[in-house]
Design brief:
The chain is of the alpha+beta class and about 180 residues long. It is built from 3 helices and 12 strands. The chain has a 6-stranded mixed sheet with strand order 3-6-7-8-9-10, sandwiched between helices. Strands 1-2 form a two-stranded antiparallel ribbon.
């Protein structure tokens, strides 16, 4: 008896741009971003991006910006949308085409496995200095820092303050008790 070969579809950014709804594309495989995030997820996302924005502004940073989801095109077949990100530099295309300095993924039941594994390793390989994994159900933040090419857990908890250095004279001190 012969073995069965699985043939998976392989899509590119051009095809991705034609799809309706919210999607991510990782190594040519589409991932639906539905259902819509839960209210607590959105509340945390809004608060974190506001805290980052306020801190960058307060510290006089002109080069870095905090953002809610935008397309981060890594390759022609990989486009992701982190829940929150900080990027430094100008975006000249309809997508971010260089690594952000920080990404935050707020876990939901439908995306937790992909966020904790697939995207974790993708961000690590892209050299993104800071990764936040946020667990809304138990209100825990994990702060990972890229060191020697791999993410190491720097701090974890519910109510703590952490200073992020984004380089270029830009930093943000975030009190995570403010995001819940």
């Amino acid at each position: 008896m012969g073995s069965t070969v699985k043939i998976l579809p392989h899509y590119t950014y051009d095809e991705y741009c034609k799809w309706e709804g919210k999607w991510e594309l990782i190594e040519g495989i589409p991932y639906a971003m539905s259902p819509a995030p839960l209210p607590k997820h959105q509340y945390i996302s809004t608060n974190l991006s506001a805290e980052l924005r306020d801190q960058l502004k307060r510290n006089g940073c002109k080069k870095c910006r905090a953002s809610q989801p935008i397309d981060y095109k890594i390759t022609d077949d990989t486009v992701v949308q982190p829940d929150v990100l900080v990027y430094c530099g100008k975006i000249s295309k309809p997508f971010l085409d260089f690594p952000p300095r920080l990404v935050a993924e707020i876990l939901s039941p439908s995306t937790a496995l992909k966020d904790r594994h697939t995207k974790f390793h993708l961000y690590e390989s892209e050299g993104i200095k800071w990764l936040l994994i946020i667990q809304p159900e138990n209100e825990v933040v994990q702060v990972y820092e890229l060191q020697n090419g791999e993410y190491l857990l720097n701090q974890e908890g519910h109510d703590f303050t952490f200073l992020f250095d984004f380089g270029d004279g830009c930093s943000a001190e975030i009190n995570f008790s403010e995001i819940w």
